[in-house]
Each structure stands twice: as structure tokens, then as C-alpha cells.
């Protein structure tokens, strides 16, 4: 029709095309029409002639056509996968249907890797060959880097990788840039990272995040990598923390001896340990949640049963019950419950937080604190040491202990950013320099970010983040403005272990700090030596990735908002209008 000739005609029965210039035959299957339906005949067309299906033979050198019906074959064998064997304490955890490894901060770096491998194997078995689901980010995490290869933790492991130098290097591009690349279509993209922290953080080999993070901060401020002979590791810091707890026990016993004889205190502690062993429990160690329900009732029961030998202790308990009853009648008309364990879950003694007792400095209060301190000593001296007993004040004291063994170094810690205390408490001890509150405006939040960035840039200080049930270092910051006018501010830290694996939005950091006055960003400052040859590694390194140049708009140009709406994807057009 396009050539100006007559339209071609199709003879569906014969499989031919006829036109003005003649006819040609095609290899089309002839069709027959019966009552409006088409059926295949028993003939096939080859070239210009036809042949019966009964006489049809496959051409020489060609294989016969495959049968139309699928022939049942042998069943596909799936590759057998075995779940990796877990240690007893991890196997007990994963049996709990409500267990979530993403929020378990007691895991070490090696245990995290083992559980990730176990989880991947379990998903492979349950999927039966299907593609596993995409990993969901932990709550509050903007980007998860746990899939990155971990650097070697020991000098021997590093020497083993000398044949393959690529294996020992950290993929800085993947670590610092969003998903390993500079965001497109943004204005200036800036990254602030500290080389000494990335090279100096130490592995967490037990639930001792306070010790491991303190060791990493100490190494970073002195420009020591984890492979340095003089580098401090978790075990060294745990040894100093053990000495701190022993000193606290001695001080509390001396203070308690003013009202209670030392013989009664020793007898109580002996019976308390024997009572827990009788119940197949480790003395002064409780599982999750057991401390709140077992510690105080057990203490009362032992004092009641041994009243003839513990007259002063029984008198102290009776006096405390009378005080509680009087306070309960004055406040609510009924006695208050026993919550001397602090209500914080771990019984952390911290000068910055609330001890939760609410009963004043009575002899009973000091007795309960003594039991809690013995519990802290049992945790820090366990085969797998735990620092859950220590709060921010414990880190400050540990830094002082490290100074005593290093007289040429002066390093101290102080709260930098956190929630202010209630005014009715009256004490300003432990107040942070930058105070974070819910009612902060956008301008105040921007000023807080600038203060955090400037402190991170200092050559003689590092930042340690006390978050929910965990301590970790702050390794890097980054900020940029996205195409929709929203400013992004993020912090690189660790939600579990000490390896830098989690980018958190600054809003998430503020939310954690506002949760409790004990959660702080701690500033650890080096006062001596003032400077040294590797000082450039301590201060932050700034990488600026400049965005595309702005296109100058003529003064008489008219902005077409409908065109702008088409340019802005999704539902961001309305927000962009409000920003402009």
C-alpha cells in the first residue's frame, strides 16, 4: 500500500500471498475454519508445495522435533546446606522465638559474624532454592555496613595477608560514601573521618563495650594502630575496671561499718552466696530480668532467717520498712514496692544517672549498693567479662587509671552532648556542654550539629557515644543537601560490637540522647602530649565532593511551576515548593 500498488491478499488455507506482481508462498500452517474457530490441519507447507504429515521425514542432518508434552525428568537435587554449630550460649538465644540479634548488644564481633552466617544458612534452607528476602535495616540505621569485610585484628593476621595486600585494606569509599558513591544531583557533599579511629579501634571479645571503646579512644589519641606493640586492648582496660570495682567494694564496706558490725556484713555475704549456689545460680549474677525480682527478696529472706545472728541488720531492715510505710502513707496511702535495685535493669552505679533508689542515704540503701557492687565485680571477673555495671563515670575513672600507668600521657573524659537533668534534682554534676531537648528548633539543631562537627575536627579529642545498652566510637560524619532541599546529617558508629558498621541520622542520635540523661556523647581529650608527629591522623580529614554548578537564571525568566512539578519525582514537589 505504501508503494502505491494494490494491497496484498492472504490465502490462509493455502499459505500464499497474492498480488499484482504475482504470488509467493510462505511456510505458514494452513488453517481451516469451522463455525468461526480455527483448527490445525494435518498438512505443513514447505516452499511452494505441501506434504502429508504421514509421509513427512526430517531433513537430513537435522534432529527430530522435540515432543510437545514435557517429559518428566529426574527431580532436581538441591545442594545440602548445614547450619553452622553455635556455642551453647548462642544456641540458647536463637531458640527463643522473640530473640532479635539486631538489638543484642552483648554480642562480640566474632559472635556477630557467626550468627550472620547461621542466619544466612537458615534462610537458604527455608527458602528451598528461592531467592532470600532482602535484609531489613535495623531500626534507626540509615545505612548498614555489616556486609563489609572486617580488617585483620592481629599483627599475625595482617602478616598473613601480605601476599594479598588488597585483603588488608579497608574499602574507604564503601565505608564513607552513601552506598559506595557520591549522591547524584546534590549540592556539596562533605565527609569528615578520623584515620586514627578507623585504624585504632579494638575488637570487642565479650560483652565489654565500655572497655573496648575506651581502648580504641586511647589508641586513637596516641596515634597507635591496633597492630602497635604499645596499643591498649580490651583485656588491659578490663583489668583496670576490676581494680575500680574492688576499690568501690572496700569503700562501701567501710562506710557501712559505721552502723553495722563487719562480722554481720561478712556473714550476710557468705549466706547470700551459699543461697544462690543452692539454687544453681552463680553468686551475684542474675539472668536478664531476674535481678529485679530476686535480689531484694533474697536479701530480706536471709536477714529474717538469720535474725539471732544479724540483730543490727534486722533492725536496719525494720527501720527501712517503717520509713517506707510512712512515706507510702504520706504520698499515696499505701507502701511503695521494693525497687532498690535501681530500676535501670543492670544496677549501674553512675554519678551522672539516677540510682533509682529513691530512699535516701540510709544504711539499707548502702547495703543494697554493696550487693550491687559485688554483682558488678562478678560480671567484670567472669570468663566473658561484662561492663554492664559501669556507666559514664566508670569510663572517666578508667581513663584516670590508665594515666597512672602512663605518666607521660594526660587524657581525661567529660560529657559533651546529652539531655539536661531535671531542675528539681538540684545537682549540676555530669551536665553536658551541649544540651539536647525535645523542644529544640531547627536553628538550635543546626547549631548542635555544627558544635559536634567542630569538636570532631579537633586534633586532640575523640567522641564516644553512650547509646542504648552500648558504647561505641564516632568514626565519621557526613552531610549534604539533596535535590529536594532537605539537609542530610549522619554519624558513623556501631550498633553492635566496635566495627564501624552503622550510619545513623543525626535525628536518631538526638532521639537516643533525649531518652535518658545517662545517654551522652562523651568527649575524651588528650592534654599531654600536646602534639606529636602522627597528630595529623587524630584530627578529622575532610573530603569535599562539590556538586554541579548552578545555572544562572535570567532576571526576566518566568518560573513555570507545572514544569517544576514534573521535574520533582514522587510527592516531594509540594515540600520543595514550601522550602523555596
Explained architecture:
With 580 residues, the chain is α+β, with helices and mostly antiparallel strands. Helix content is 37%, strand content 15%. The chain has a six-stranded antiparallel β-sheet with strand order 8-16-15-14-9-18. A five-stranded mixed β-sheet has the order 11-10-17-12-13, sandwiched between helices. Strands 1-2-3 form a three-stranded antiparallel β-sheet, with no helix packed on it. A hairpin with a 5-residue loop joins strand 14 (476-481) and strand 15. Residues 12-21, 25-55, 163-168, 329-359 and 548-573 have low confidence and may be disordered.
Q: Short summary of the structure?
A:
With 580 residues, the chain is of the alpha+beta class.
Cα distance spanning the termini: 57 Å
Arrangement of strands in the largest sheet = 8-16-15-14-9-18
Main sheet makeup: 6 strands, antiparallel
Low-confidence regions:
12-21, 25-55, 163-168, 329-359, 548-573
* Average of pLDDT: 75
* Percent helix: 25-40%
Amino acid at each position: 500500500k505504501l508503494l502505491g500498488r494494490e494491497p496484498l491478499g492472504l490465502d490462509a488455507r493455502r499459505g500464499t500471498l497474492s498480488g499484482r506482481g504475482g504470488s509467493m508462498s510462505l511456510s505458514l500452517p494452513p488453517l481451516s475454519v469451522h463455525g468461526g474457530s480455527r483448527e490445525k490441519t494435518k498438512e505443513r507447507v514447505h516452499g511452494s508445495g505441501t506434504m502429508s504429515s504421514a509421509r513427512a521425514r526430517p531433513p537430513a542432518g537435522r534432529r527430530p522435533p522435540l515432543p510437545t508434552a514435557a517429559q518428566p525428568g529426574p527431580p532436581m537435587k538441591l545442594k545440602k546446606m548445614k547450619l553452622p554449630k553455635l556455642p551453647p550460649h548462642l544456641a540458647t538465644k536463637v531458640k527463643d522465638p522473640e530473640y532479635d540479634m539486631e538489638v543484642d548488644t552483648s554480642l562480640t564481633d566474632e559472635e556477630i559474624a557467626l550468627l550472620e552466617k547461621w542466619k544466612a544458612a537458615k534462610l537458604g534452607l527455608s527458602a528451598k532454592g528461592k531467592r532470600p528476602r532482602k535484609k531489613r535495616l535495623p531500626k534507626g540505621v540509615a545505612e548498614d555496613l555489616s556486609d563489609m569485610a572486617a580488617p585483620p585484628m592481629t599483627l599475625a593476621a595482617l602478616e598473613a595477608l601480605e601476599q594479598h595486600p588488597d585483603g588488608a585494606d579497608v574499602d574507604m569509599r564503601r565505608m564513607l560514601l552513601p552506598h559506595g558513591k557520591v549522591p547524584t544531583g546534590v549540592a556539596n557533599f562533605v565527609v569528615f573521618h578520623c584515620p586514627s579511629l578507623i585504624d585504632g579501634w579494638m575488637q570487642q571479645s565479650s560483652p565489654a563495650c565500655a572497655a573496648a571503646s575506651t581502648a580504641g579512644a586511647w589508641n586513637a589519641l596516641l596515634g597507635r594502630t591496633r597492630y602497635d606493640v604499645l596499643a591498649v586492648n580490651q583485656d588491659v582496660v578490663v583489668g583496670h575496671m576490676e581494680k575500680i570495682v574492688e576499690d568501690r567494694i572496700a569503700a562501701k564496706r567501710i562506710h557501712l561499718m559505721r552502723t553495722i558490725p563487719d562480722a554481720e556484713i561478712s556473714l550476710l555475704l557468705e549466706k547470700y552466696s551459699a543461697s544462690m549456689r543452692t539454687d544453681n545460680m552463680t553468686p551475684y549474677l542474675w539472668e536478664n530480668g531476674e535481678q529485679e525480682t530476686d535480689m531484694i527478696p533474697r536479701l530480706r529472706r536471709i536477714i529474717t532467717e538469720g535474725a539471732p545472728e544479724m540483730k543490727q541488720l534486722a533492725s536496719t531492715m525494720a527501720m527501712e520498712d517503717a520509713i517506707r510505710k510512712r512515706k507510702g502513707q504520706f504520698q499515696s496511702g499505701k507502701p511503695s514496692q521494693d525497687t532498690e535495685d535501681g530500676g535501670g535493669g543492670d544496677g549501674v552505679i553512675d554519678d551522672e544517672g539516677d540510682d533509682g533508689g529513691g530512699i535516701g542515704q540510709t544504711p539499707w540503701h548502702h547495703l543494697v549498693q554493696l550487693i550491687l557492687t559485688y554483682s558488678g565485680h562478678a560480671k567484670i571477673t567472669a570468663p566473658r567479662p561484662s561492663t554492664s555495671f559501669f556507666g559514664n563515670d566508670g569510663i572517666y575513672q578508667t581513663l584516670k587509671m590508665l594515666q597512672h600507668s602512663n605518666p607521660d600521657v594526660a587524657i581525661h573524659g567529660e560529657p559533651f552532648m546529652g539531655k539536661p537533668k531535671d531542675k528539681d534534682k538540684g545537682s549540676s554534676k555530669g551536665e553536658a556542654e551541649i544540651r539536647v531537648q525535645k523542644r529544640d528548633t531547627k536553628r538550635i539543631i543546626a547549631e548542635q550539629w555544627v558544635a559536634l562537627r567542630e569538636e570532631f575536627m579537633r586534633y586532640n579529642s575523640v567522641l564516644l557515644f553512650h547509646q542504648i545498652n552500648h558504647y561505641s566510637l564516632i568514626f565519621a560524619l557526613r552531610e549534604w543537601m539533596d535535590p529536594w532541599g532537605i539537609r542530610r546529617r549522619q554519624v558513623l558508629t556501631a550498633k553492635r560490637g566496635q566495627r564501624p558498621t552503622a550510619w545513623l541520622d543525626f535525628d536518631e542520635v538526638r532521639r537516643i540522647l533525649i531518652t535518658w540523661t545517662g545517654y551522652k556523647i562523651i568527649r575524651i581529650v588528650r592534654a599531654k602530649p600536646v602534639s606529636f608527629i602522627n597528630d595529623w591522623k587524630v584530627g578529622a580529614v575532610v573530603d569535599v565532593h562539590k556538586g554541579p554548578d548552578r545555572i544562572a537564571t535570567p532576571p526576566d525568566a518566568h518560573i513555570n511551576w507545572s514544569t517544576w512539578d514534573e521535574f520533582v519525582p514522587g510527592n516531594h514537589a509540594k515540600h520543595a515548593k514550601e522550602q523555596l
